[in-house]
């Protein structure tokens, strides 16, 4: 892995400060052959978070600077997992620092189907991809201790929210459904919705209750890593693989934006 802070390798004191910080926001994406799907959406996410969490507006010049920082961290690497994180600067009251990390790309497809456990939980500031990930890691750990792979969050109102780091898509036999609730609007989810609209594939957005989950024959986890099948929701098997196949094929058709 390579990590750069504002375009350079951070010093020991800076790394120590970054480790202690629990404030900020980020976006994560896969670089494939030097390109990124939904690059403008990732930049928009960073801009929204910077204004909400730091009171900092990002203009066109700073967008170009951000892209330059990502390119510098990548170097000649053409395939990678990239995370761009905004963290408080040393004084805490100025523009945020930019941390770019580059790691190996995830496999394509991203892995075998997941066994998902539902749990009542609501993320703070769910519309932002922020650094408050302690409870997310805790839920992944608890799920694995219980014999599952990950968890799906249900709000106190009984409505399905999102996974620990992914959006849920389900197949009702006629169309793809995305649960309508306070969640992070994942870039992959938004790009899939746009692509399905352009392809004429049926999809909808509506509230989904935890009790509804038993009625869906297929489900998928959609994230920055791509589309991953879901084998079961709690103890209910998801046996219809058409949803995963259709979403994966649609995702493969989304064009790459050159960095």
From TrEMBL:
Pfam family of the protein (one): Aminotran_4
GO molecular function, a single term: transaminase activity
InterPro entries for the chain: Aminotrans_IV (IPR001544), Aminotransferase-like (IPR036038), BCAT-like_C (IPR043132), BCAT-like_N (IPR043131)
Keyword Transferase: yes
Superkingdom assignment: Bacteria
UniProt KW keywords: Aminotransferase, Lyase, Transferase
Protein name per the record: Branched-subunit amino acid aminotransferase/4-amino-4-deoxychorismate lyase
Species the sequence originates in: Pseudosporangium ferrugineum
């Amino acid at each position: 892995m390579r990590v750069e802070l504002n375009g350079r390798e951070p010093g020991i004191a800076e790394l120590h400060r970054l480790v202690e910080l629990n404030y900020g926001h980020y976006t994560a994406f896969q670089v494939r052959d030097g390109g990124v799907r939904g690059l403008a959406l990732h930049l928009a996410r960073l801009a929204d978070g910077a204004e909400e969490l730091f009171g900092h507006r990002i203009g066109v010049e700073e967008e170009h600077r951000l892209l330059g920082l990502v390119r510098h961290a990548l170097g000649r690497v053409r395939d990678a997992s990239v995370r761009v994180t905004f963290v408080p600067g040393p004084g805490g009251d100025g523009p945020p620092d930019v941390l770019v990390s580059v790691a190996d790309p995830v496999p394509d497809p991203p892995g075998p189907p997941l066994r998902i456990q539902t749990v009542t939980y609501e993320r703070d500031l769910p519309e932002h991809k922020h650094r408050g990930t302690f409870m997310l890691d805790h839920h992944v750990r608890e799920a694995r201790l219980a014999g599952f792979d990950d968890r799906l969050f249900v709000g106190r109102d009984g409505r399905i929210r999102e996974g620990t780091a992914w959006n849920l898509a389900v197949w009702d036999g006629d169309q793809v459904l995305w649960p309508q609730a306070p969640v992070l609007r994942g870039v992959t989810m938004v790009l899939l919705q746009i692509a399905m609209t352009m392809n004429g594939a049926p999809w909808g957005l509506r509230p989904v209750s935890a009790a509804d989950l038993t009625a869906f024959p297929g489900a998928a986890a959609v994230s920055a890593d791509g589309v991953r099948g879901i084998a079961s929701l709690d103890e209910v098997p998801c046996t219809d693989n058409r949803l995963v196949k259709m979403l994966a094929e649609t995702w493969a058709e989304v064009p790459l934006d050159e960095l």
